[in-house]
Amino acid sequence: MMAWKGRTLSRGEGYPLCFACGQENPIGLKLRFRREGDEVRGEFTPGEYHQGWPGIVHGGIINVLLDEVMAYAPHFLGLNCVTAKMEVRLMHPAPVGKRLLISSTISRRTRKLIEATGRIALEDGTTVAEGKATMYVVEEA
User: Which residue, among 116, 24, 98, has the nearest Cα to 56 in the 3D structure?
Assistant: First the structure.
């Protein structure tokens, strides 16, 4: 596997314009996550600008939510990663205006790779989507 040759990913400098978590991005999702034991959790209430089919959240937004929450699992361990591979299974439509519960855990770790699983659910527990990702460890924070 090639070594990372990109710019440093240290979150110490912050990412105010990140589409997913940047708090200063005017069109971003402004996601915030917290660590609860081995799990990362967050929530997001999609608005009308996040829809594909009328009243239904666009699948690309669902993918962004999963990618970000799975990236935060290693981040909370002090590891900065980039997603190398991701698989998403959409299971139930996510209605616009309904709060989505987002979570992830690390399922496997090697020296340079992290495997994580993620889930998005409605408040009643209905699974909207599940994801699996393999992430390349770029650096330790």
Answer: 98
Give the architecture-level CATH label for domain 33-140.
Roll (3.10)
pTM: 0.90
Chain-centre distance of CA 77, in angstroms?
A: 15
Report the alpha-carbon distance of residue 70 to residue 119 in Å, rounded: 9
Output the CA torsion 140→66→86→56 (10° steps). Answer: -160
| pLDDT, position 3 | 58
In this structure, the number of other CB atoms found within 10 A of the CB of residue 91 comes to: 14
- Closest by CA to 103, choosing from 140, 82, 128, is 128
pLDDT, mean of residues 18-32: 94
Q: What is the DSSP string of 28-40?
A: S----EEEETTEE
- Helix, strand, coil tally for the chain in percent (to 5): 15, 45, 40
**What residue type is assigned to position 77 of the chain?**
L
Q: Quick check: 100 and 118 in contact, CB under 8 A?
A: no
Q: Classify 75 as helix, strand or coil.
A: helix
Output phi, psi for 74, to 5 deg: -70, -30
